[in-house]
Amino acid sequence: MDWNDTPAQAAFRADVRTFIAQQLPERYRQIAEQGGPLGPEQDWQSEYVLGDAETKQAAAQWLAALAARDWVAPHWPREYGGAGLTPVEQFILRQEFARAAAPAVGGQGVTMLGPTLLVHGTDEQKRTFLAPTLRGELHWAQGFSEPGAGSDLASLQCRAVRDGDEYVINGQKLWTSTAHKSNWLFGMFRTDPGAPKHRGISFLLLNLSTPGVSVRPIISMGFQHATNETFYEDVRVPTSQLVGEENRGWYVGMTLLDYERSNIAGAIENRRYLDSLVAHLRTERGAEQAGPRARLGRLELAERYIESEVLFNFSFRIISIQGAGLVPNYEASVTKIANSELAQKVARSGMRVLGPYANLWDPEERYTPLGARFTQNYCHTVLGTIGGGANEIQRNIIATRGLGLPRG
Fold first, then answer.
1. What does the alpha-carbon distance between residue 134 and residue 67 come to, in Å, rounded to a whole number?
2. CB 119 within 8 Å of CB 100
């Protein structure tokens, strides 16, 4: 690993910083000044689709600025509307966006589905879906998990039965993030129930306006509507929307999960939260709110800073592996665990230092410290160690693939 930029990388970093300084809409600058977005990264897609006039305008302005530089999909090849950036350039771009709390435009369609179609999609599928996704016309949700198939995803049972030139889907998906603000879904469905569980699965693209699809909200403990349960009753999908081979969808899905695994944004976002807390404690109001807990919490906050630096280096390791033309495997699991657990620790540390004031949920309440950032993140980050592959599963991957330990 080389932590220093080459001259070309340093020039690219300076270019990105200049771009952000000149193009970032005022709305996102204000969010950055307040310490960054609450909960997950700034959800540009939600604002672009569901926001009021002001938020839609900011999201559209930022999308247009990125599109002019082909940075909506910086990792896609140029012939498909991407920027064709190297892995290290992509890392620098994400790093600088995270430092400025600038939203990374893309969503699941750009970061996950697009690269998968580039590998497994037909020419017709690439022509049909890639360009509209870049333009923000297609908003994608991911239909993987089911009530009986979460961490053990290969146990999924939502059926897709071939009927001539169509598949007929029946069943349920769970934790379908962004389905309420998406118009398309990519997912895995059981097409051969008699096959071993990792086979007999097919990868399909589905228009969510198709008759028979229903979306029901799941409200989190932090009062957020971020995910849903989706139901499919005799939903007909053309066979032209099958990605890859029938009954080989598991391998298509695993290709999808290989993209964007460095978690560099998480390392920087957690450091930004810590910086905002320390700055608050140095004010008269912050010192009064924390009282003696500020002194007691110094060592704990120091530990969080160290852990954020460790996560940064884990992230840098991932991008070094990708830059060498390799695919990270157990290394990405290490980074996922570190990122999700650090986010929870940072929220808990902020809660402890702020004491009774951390019980205030409303960001607009006059006595609420730091816009209730740590209070709300205390709830929002609970799912981090479950979603995207539970950390228990990640530890199994590290044990078997990384350490070569036998399966129990």
1. 8
2. no
pLDDT, residue 41, reads: 46
Fill in the DSSP letter of residue 146.
B
Give me the helices (H) in 297-385, please: 298-323, 330-354, 373-380
Q: What is the pLDDT at residue 37?
A: 60
Q: Is 166 a catalytic residue?
A: no
- Domain ranges across the chain: 7-105, 140-256, 264-402
Catalytic residue among 96, 146, 260, 307: 260
Helix (H) or strand (E) holding 141, with range, is: strand 140-143
Tokens coding 100: 């400025």
- Domain formed by 7-105, architecture: Orthogonal Bundle (1.10)
Tell which CATH architecture fits domain 264-402. Up-down Bundle (1.20)
Residues of the chain with pLDDT under 50: 38-41
pLDDT > 70 in the chain, percent = 93
Please, are residues 391 and 336 in contact by the beta-carbon 8 Å criterion? yes
Contact 233, 158 (CB under 8 A): no
* Fold topology of 140-256: Butyryl-CoA Dehydrogenase, subunit A; domain 2 (2.40.110)
Cβ within 8 Å of residue 72, ≥6 positions away: 63, 66, 81, 82, 105, 106, 110, 134
